[in-house]
Design a protein that fits this description.
The protein has 287 residues and is α/β, with parallel strands linked by helices. It is built from ten helices and seven strands. Strands 3-2-1-4-5-6-7 form a seven-stranded parallel beta sheet, sandwiched between helices. The chain is globular, with a radius of gyration of 19 Å.
């Protein structure tokens, strides 16, 4: 089998049929693909994001695929908006079985140049957005005695790297929070899973590459993966009740091994970062 293309759906069509799912950050990127894939398998999906025009188009795609998509305008950084959005989702779907926290933002910058406002914004979206949604759904899941929460973190939540220091800090926080909540919910019937992707081919990642390496324009070939790979990881985490899924498989193990030799790993990552800077500078000179 071609390892670049995961098997279609892992036979999980019936498993998710009729399930009631909330996906944040559903207007594009990973969140959009996750929401669409649930809809394609007959789930009822509440689509949470700020851009209602994009959510409407996604809801139409889900309806054509045989599912139900309900657009719900929501800024995850606003706690009261999140509470109202979860209440609306609960009413529209008839309950909430699954929460996927995919809303996120990335503002790359070397540490000395990082704007505090940018770090604050990333914390508000990446960390507090996750906090708000989990706290909003947990009472309902506890009452039901079951539920699945999947937080999309990042391999950058296990290993810091430049120029993503601020982003790494927020994803480290999401990772630690998820592990703590998983322990608190042990035996409750509610699972908390982490999905830890590397660089994914999304508009957010493309914009981050343009900002961190002006002139390069896009990530080097073979360094990104399609969003659907992350979607398969979300499905696997829920169906198999896995605490953590790395994308691609084995990447997390490689990071753990790298942690045994931090000096060598730092040097290799620094060399890679420097090479990107040189490529960007050469590209700018040639244009």
């Amino acid at each position: 089998m071609d390892q670049r293309v995961p098997p279609s759906g892992f036979g999980l069509g019936a498993f998710f049929e009729g399930r009631k799912v909330v996906v944040t950050g559903a207007s594009s990127g990973i969140g959009g693909d996750v929401a669409l894939a649930f809809g394609e398998r007959g789930a009822k999906v509440a689509l949470l994001a700020r851009r209602m025009d994009l959510l409407g188009g996604l809801a139409d795609k889900i309806a054509k695929a045989g599912g139900v998509g309900v657009p719900v305008g929501c800024d995850v950084t606003d706690r009261e908006q999140v509470k109202r959005a979860i209440e609306e989702s609960h009413r529209a779907l008839g309950g909430i079985d699954i929460l996927v926290n995919s809303a996120g933002t990335l503002m790359p910058a070397p540490f000395e140049e990082m704007e505090p406002a940018d770090l604050r914004r990333m914390l508000e979206v990446n960390l507090f957005g996750t906090v708000h949604t989990m706290q909003a759904v947990l009472p309902r899941m506890r009452q039901a005695g079951r539920g699945n929460i999947v937080n999309i973190a990042s391999l950058a939540g296990r290993r810091g790297m430049s120029p993503l220091g601020g982003y790494c800090a927020t994803k480290f926080a999401v990772t630690g929070l998820s592990e703590a909540v998983r322990m608190e919910l042990f035996g409750s019937g509610i699972t908390v899973s982490l999905v830890m992707p590397g660089l994914v081919d999304t508009p957010m990642a493309a914009e981050a590459v343009r900002k961190s390496a002006p002139g390069v324009g896009k990530a080097p070939p073979g360094t990104t993966m399609p969003p659907r790979w992350v979607t398969w990881a979300v499905f696997a985490a829920i169906a198999l009740r896995l605490p953590e899924v790395d994308v691609p498989p084995g990447a997390g193990t490689a990071e753990k091994l790298a942690a045994l030799f931090p000096g060598t790993t730092d040097a290799l990552l620094a060399m890679g970062s420097r090479m990107m800077e040189l490529v960007a500078a050469a590209t700018r000179r040639s244009t």
